[in-house]
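Format notes (please read before filing issues)

Several people have asked whether sequences and structure tokens are stored in separate files. They are not. Every record keeps both together, in the order shown below: the sequence lines, then the token lines. Line labels are part of the format and must not be stripped during preprocessing.
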Amino acid sequence: MQSKIRISIHQAALITIVLVGLISCNTNKKIKEGPVEEKVSPIYSISMNKICKEWDGQWQGITVASDGNCYFSSSTHSKSHGAGFHKFDPVTKKHTVLAEDMTEICGETSTLSQQGKIHSPIVECDGWLYFTTHLSNYWKEGIERYTGAHVVGYELSTGKFRDFGIVRPRYSIYSAINVDPVRKKLYVFVAPFLDELIESDGCHLYSIDIASGEKEDLGQMTRGQKGASFWFFVDNQGNVWFTLWKLHWMYENDHGNLYVYRPDQGKIQTYNDVLPKGKFMDGTPVTNDTLLRQRAWVWAKALPGRERCMFTMGDWGGGDERLWIFDPSKNIETGEAFREVASIGSTFLQTDIGADRLYFVQFADPADERTYDSESTREWDPDAEGFVEKSLHLRSVSIDPEGDHTIRDHGHIVDQDGRAARMIMSMAADDNGRVYMYGSWHVKSFKEATLQYLLFEYPNGDLYRLLKRGEFFAVASTSSSGK
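Then the structure lines:
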């Protein structure tokens, strides 16, 4: 398998990237793909860089809340500006900046640290949204000055923020958060970035009691290494299921493990090497040993009732190109707990369920997901000789295990003014066929362009460049319903 084309700034930053492929219920069959529409109609976008020039990307950090509004973040790598938090009303199309800089919400404006990202899911419980901040200053000085990641709540009815404070001093949260709505507990994945903490310690699972704010270290997950876990599935028994992401790090004792924290036992249990071994969209097994060792969830979400969840592994989680249901009531060691739903191709963070469909973004040719990633191709200069646009498409498939798994290609992602999406890493969907996206887009003028800090080229300076792309929030109306 070819290695992906990447640029060093994103490798060094350890930012996760989208790799989506196509999946099949019957792996002996090729994926079924429906007719391609000319483009999604309509797509409405809003320029983020007209508000803040330094917002330069977004990964996860988006949800549709119980009030029908979409809440989302905008992140940065700036020395002087943190992440923003926003609300969008899909009925009125009103966009509201709820907080322009999370560093201020976290009470750290007097420090040299920045809370530059909300690189986590946003979860809801009892009228509150919960999310985490994340380290964004990846240069040496920024890591050394980082105070630590915060857990933050936002009350829908009042617009009030609640800062639960730093979970583990000088550690970030990379990046999972979820909630047990019965026990009223939050769970987060805490990760070190400072060399001395990586060498002497590792990643930890923490719980936070919502009422008291009390934090508890539930156990160490890695030793002498960084790590990441993007999604938690909290089942209806309060068990917290998760995997470790392995694209940048290999773990000696994890070649496809599934982990669960059981609150009634107060301990973390490991199921060794149980995640399904990958298959490509045409049913060909993944045989590359590195990919097989990298098996992990790159997207997961609970189904109604929280008895089961759906998940994908994708090219950055072991190369598998299928959509799965995980049922913890069934035998995990034998594989009975994992049921293949559909063949959709490689997917990553830009994935969500809306009504009875799974929505995802991938290149026009799904096979390109194995060779390219949009976080690198978004940096290609459109004015350079020989430039070829790698267009991004919005697609969907039925999540009914017995349904029609023909892939719907909703078309090239182009907004109301002809701008095309260049990278989508943050996506949510509602039950009315609306799909919300945040990412990098072509710009019509430099007023819409991102001002990017050159944190790796000139880490000790304060140099920026104006990019030939900008950050946009967008909503697509697919009018998709039924199976």
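For reference, the curators noted about this record: The mean pLDDT is 90. Helices lie at 8-13, 102-105, 140-145, 195-200, 289-293, 374-377.
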